Request: fold
Amino acid sequence: MASLFDQNFRYTDRARAIFKELQRNLYPIYMELLEEGFSPREITALVTSAAAQTENAAIAEWEEARGGSPEPEESQTTA
Reply:
């Protein structure tokens, strides 16, 4: 499986590009919610939960497309 970290555990160029794309997409959402008066901490909790649920759904779909679950030691689910 590809990695977003190099041999020194630093982000690769691809990881940095993904990070910037995520920031560009999240920034307007944060600003909108802050302007509505929501707590930054609560916004972050919501975003983190959404990311974890997205991870779970994406992994389940990916595994199904591959024809089943990976071996237990291959699983990368963190939620």
In short: The radius of gyration is 16 Å.
